[in-house]
């Protein structure tokens, strides 16, 4: 009877050792998987950063071109406005002077 108990205790001890080894193996595998996943994440992150830099470099000149076009358009509009000012300045001044110095009295519509 003692040998039966001894064999049960031995089997229980071996089972406990197997369970501990399985837990250690699982823990090691989880750590390895975590390290692998982190390296894949870092590689993907580097890839996307490189793609972003490439995209920014390709489109960097686009903003400068648009700014130059806008500046030339603004300059041409300013020239047109100045020409209109020069040509109509005397007419507006004479119209204002006439309106002030030669009033024409009229009844208001509501009067």
UniProtKB/TrEMBL annotation:
Residues 8-72 form a coiled coil. Keywords: Coiled coil, Hydrogen ion transport, Ion transport, Transport. The keyword Coiled coil applies. GO terms for molecular function: ATP hydrolysis activity; proton-transporting ATPase activity, rotational mechanism. Belongs to the V-ATPase G subunit family. V-ATPase is a heteromultimeric enzyme made up of two complexes: the ATP-hydrolytic V1 complex and the proton translocation V0 complex. Subunit of the V1 complex of vacuolar(H+)-ATPase (V-ATPase), a multisubunit enzyme composed of a peripheral complex (V1) that hydrolyzes ATP and a membrane integral complex (V0) that translocates protons. V-ATPase is responsible for acidifying and maintaining the pH of intracellular compartments and in some cell types, is targeted to the plasma membrane, where it is responsible for acidifying the extracellular environment. This is V-type proton ATPase subunit G. It comes from Scheffersomyces spartinae.
């Amino acid at each position: 009877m003692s040998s039966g108990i001894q064999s049960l205790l031995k089997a229980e001890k071996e089972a406990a050792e197997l369970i501990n080894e399985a837990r250690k193996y699982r823990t090691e595998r989880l750590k390895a998987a975590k390290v692998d996943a982190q390296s894949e994440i870092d590689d993907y992150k580097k890839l996307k950063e490189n793609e972003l830099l490439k995209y920014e470099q390709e489109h960097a000149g686009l903003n400068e071109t648009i700014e130059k076009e806008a500046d030339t358009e603004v300059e041409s509009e300013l020239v047109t406005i100045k020409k209109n000012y020069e040509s109509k300045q005397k007419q507006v001044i004479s119209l204002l002077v006439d309106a002030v110095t030669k009033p024409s009295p009229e009844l208001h519509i509501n009067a």
